[in-house]
Amino acid sequence: MQADALAGVAATFLIKESMLLPIYIQANPSIAESHVCSVNNEDQNWTIDIKAYLRTGALPENPKHAHKIRVQSTHFTLMGDDLYKRSFGGPYLICLTQLEIQYVLSKLHEGVCDNHSGNRTLVHKAHSQGYYWPTMKQDAEAYARKCDKCQRIPQVIVADNGPQFDSALFKSFCSEFSIKNLYSTPQYPQSNRQVEATNKTLLSALEKQLEKAKGRWVEELPSVLWAYRTTLERPTGNTPFALAYGIDAVIPTEIGMPTARTAIQGQRKESEELTRHLDWADETREMASVRMAAYQ
Predict the structure, then answer these.
(1) CB 176: neighbour CB atoms within 10 A?
(2) Would you tell me which of 8, 35, 205, 249 could form a disulfide with 115, CB atoms 3.0–4.6 Å apart?
(3) Which residues, in sequence order, are CB contacts of 186 under 8 Å at separation 6+?
(4) Are residues 70 and 90 in contact, defined by beta-carbon separation less than 8 angstroms?
(5) Dist. CA 229–CA 235, nearest whole Å
(6) How many CA atoms lie within 13 A of 276 on its CB side?
(7) Three-state DSSP class for 123?
(8) Average of per-residue pLDDT across 218-242
(9) What's the confidence (pLDDT) of residue 121?
(10) What element of type H or E holds 180?
(11) Cα–Cα distance measured from residue 72 to residue 77, given in angstroms and rounded to the nearest whole number
């Protein structure tokens, strides 16, 4: 009743024109929209200050940064316009900028010679091929984590005949996630482990390459085998290619982003160099067999 009475009073109340308040409708934003672009300034890469110091002796104004550059530069050298790091256990390593880093990681991880390896294998492969940048481990881990194909549930698990893998709980887990469960034969467990590791690597790489197009495995098999043969193995300390020919293969990444190794080889007669390394291949294989025996 009180609400109705108040509404009636308000309706009969005359509002003077001077009391009217204008209402403005803002159809457009009062602040102009700003467009922001992601700019990758190539001049901001980590090699600029080191190159400047090696060329002209110029140092940054910041005393701490200048001291850091002076100390770091003792491990680097300039060859033309390219900066190389003196490796402690191998040839010179070419230093990469941010754009070059992404190119190398993409080619090594999912290019022609890829096998979607983990971050440790990825960073070791980049280093062994003659590349360097200060955050190699960090960038390799971040790249592997961002790869969609590397984050999925495995389609096959190859296990031994242990009771923990034959339990109802484990079988239920595999069935729930559509994981195929395979068992190895118990006759020769030493060989089983080696075959399991090889098959697991090849099958995993094939699955990541094919995804749903399983019928194309014959077409993708050569590139998967090439990736496997050019990847360093922990038991032997060499790549399968090096055990066969006595020298590591030049992978496609080194064609697009040349290293010190490919630059030097380009000035030699490749056939003579390959023949020389074939003569040394027996020694490489013998050292690999000793290392594999110790690994087992």
Answers:
(1) 8
(2) 205
(3) 160, 161, 192
(4) no
(5) 14
(6) 6
(7) helix
(8) 76
(9) 81
(10) strand 180-183
(11) 11
